[in-house]
Inverse folding.
């Protein structure tokens, strides 16, 4: 049997899980392509953005991470479907028998005026670094009079898990920064703006209410039914006419698949490629994770979260192996593992698929445990995991972050 | 009794120790001025340069670090001795009754041709970050053919503690990078170049020999009696005529005091200001730490190391308090605490003032203990200290560093 050449584009949760499973099969030649030489642990980007974790802690080197898989650092600029090949920015052409597209998602402005120019997004290490620098630097600038005190106000748009998590973490950071800049105490503020009627809309009403209550305990002003009309460098204008002054605007209101693959097939509003029940497009192309539109049992696309990507990655690896061995394909079935969000450092909301709900510290420990062990566990990175937990747990002991230009 | 206004320039080991002691005295108004809002833990810069520690771990916020002391972020551009005032870059003028200069040291090229243009120094976070990026990025560049394999060679100039420590850490980093880039295995190399007859010249012969042996076990090529004549972007030329190709050249051959204070008094070759037995210049100016030339019992200036700066800082605080209370001044006496250097992660050489010597793991643990608890302990930064130890101890478990542009 000849070797089957599998090219996986994207070294995220989905792509790497797929590669790891395929590496167990003989006769498969695996190439992983990504523009960065690391796996980004995106669910903790907000920790980097708020100074809780150093950036190395959420970026794991992917080279040599999976024995037997080749890694190429590069940007895919073209996919030639009939020729079954793709071309990188450096001009090199790579043939594939099976192509797994696992390119994740990017931030999207939904066309709201001023978002691209004035809001900070949080989809990459670089963006998280910029937010962190802005948050810290603003205190310096206000103290010496280069910026008005209003610049210490932060507006977060979008109350999904990312928006909720970053709001809580910014509120905690602000309290600590005010200890360092006592003259500025009382001027910091986080406002979380959500267009829908409640925070964490995908959770139950009760969990939403708890999350909002926890945020308010941390000093976050929560505004629901508040849609953003447009924004300017230092102001967010709501559709109601209210204007929120802000030194930092964080946009956490939506993600979309990268638009460059849209011509490969049917896409939805968020540029996701619609796949069949096996996660395939046809012609040996599979699409997984955030880039994929897979209709769930309720007809709606599966959420853009790591567990979906990982399950799809494992499933597609299984299908490629089955195909090779002349076995029939099996439809993908998503096993809901529940959902969770942290609010600050000791609170979280967790909803299990069996209807069980956790709040407070128990939920926070569950969140920590699942993030740290379940998601990172496959890489067996004892050191990173321990460093993380340690960083995370002792964060409260003393100031740790400062402006390093 | 009127308030005594003390201005301390430099938030390093010396300046902060001085401020902390002065804060115990009533009637003293303390201002600390530094161009950075953090204390740099310089003895561990080489760890940041080689990917062992994140930069936040060696930069502690200084604002609010000492209750009762004011912090101003700024650059001192002029000292007006008769008027007892200094001027910052932003134009503000600050009066003092007592001025403590604790401005540390900077790298010096000793006028060797090509050093300033081609060698990387390691005196700031920014410089350490550049070295780290260069070391990691070179593997990427060589792999895709943008740089020749020779670029993986590193030359370190100067075999004092800094040169020895960085050589060992780079050698360990290279071994790990070759695991990630197996195609490049066998091409990395560190060469440590020392003009004198042995490494760690301030240690005993026996400790020097041990250190050299340990370095060689890590794969470092050690060249003694090898003076650098000049350097070019990819070559170091020795006086012997030998040429060492290098992708990265790290200059650890010498430090000097910042030259801008030279007109305040007599200076030595390294721009250090010669002080009297109380560490003073006169006119209410005190000079401590690396900026100070204090003749030790053997007539030679005290070494430019943290324990000297800290002891001087405490001493000067005591003198300012004594003066204020009408008591006589006491000459400064340096208590030698010994010296140490690490070589890689499990080896070190330690020499105690009582003649006791330690090598190997015992020495390494001593080094770790003293650095972590003695030097950082005064700040009571449990979290940072623990994070450090953890990072440091588990470093061997898995790859942790990658290029994040």
């Amino acid at each position: 049997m000849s070797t089957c050449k599998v090219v996986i584009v994207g070294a995220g949760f989905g792509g790497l899980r797929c590669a790891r499973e395929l590496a167990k099969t003989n006769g498969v030649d695996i190439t992983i392509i990504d523009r960065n030489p690391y796996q980004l642990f995106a669910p903790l980007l907000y920790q980097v953005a708020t100074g809780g974790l150093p950036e190395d802690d959420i970026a794991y080197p992917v080279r040599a991470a999976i024995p037997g898989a080749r890694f190429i650092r590069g940007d895919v600029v073209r996919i030639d479907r009939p020729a079954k090949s793709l071309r990188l920015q450096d001009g090199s052409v790579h043939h594939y028998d099976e192509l797994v597209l696992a390119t994740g998602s990017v931030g999207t402005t939904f066309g709201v005026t001023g978002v691209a120019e004035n809001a900070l997004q949080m989809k990459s290490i670089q963006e998280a670094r910029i937010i962190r620098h802005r948050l810290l630097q603003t205190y310096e600038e206000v103290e010496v009079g280069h910026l008005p005190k209003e610049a210490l106000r932060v507006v977060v748009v979008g109350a999904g898990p990312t928006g909720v998590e970053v709001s809580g973490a910014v509120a905690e950071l602000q309290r600590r920064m005010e200890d360092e800049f006592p003259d500025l105490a009382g001027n910091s503020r986080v406002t979380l703006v959500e267009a829908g009627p409640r925070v964490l809309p995908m959770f139950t009403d009760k969990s939403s209410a708890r999350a909002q209550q926890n945020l308010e305990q941390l000093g976050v002003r929560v505004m629901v039914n508040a849609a953003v009309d447009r924004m300017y460098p230092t102001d967010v204008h709501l559709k109601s006419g209210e204007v929120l002054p802000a030194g930092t605007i964080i946009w956490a209101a939506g993600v979309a698949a990268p638009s460059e693959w849209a011509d490969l097939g049917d896409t939805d509003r968020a540029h996701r490629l619609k796949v069949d029940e096996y996660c395939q497009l046809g012609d040996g192309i599979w699409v997984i994770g955030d880039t994929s539109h897979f209709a769930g049992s309720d007809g709606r696309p599966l959420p853009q979260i790591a567990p979906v990507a990982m399950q799809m990655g494992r499933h597609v690896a299984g299908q490629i192996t089955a195909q090779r061995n002349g076995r029939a394909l099996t439809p993908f079935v998503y096993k809901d593992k529940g959902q969770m969000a942290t609010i600050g450092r000791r609170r979280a909301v967790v909803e299990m698929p069996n209807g069980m709900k956790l709040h407070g510290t128990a939920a926070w420990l569950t969140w920590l445990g699942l993030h740290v062990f379940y998601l990172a566990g496959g890489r067996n990175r004892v050191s990173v995991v321990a460093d993380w937990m340690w960083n995370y747990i002792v964060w409260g002991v003393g100031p740790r972050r400062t402006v390093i230009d």
Notes: The mean pLDDT of chain B is 90. Chain B touches chain A through 45 residues (CB under 8 Å). The two ends of chain B are 56 Å apart (CA to CA).
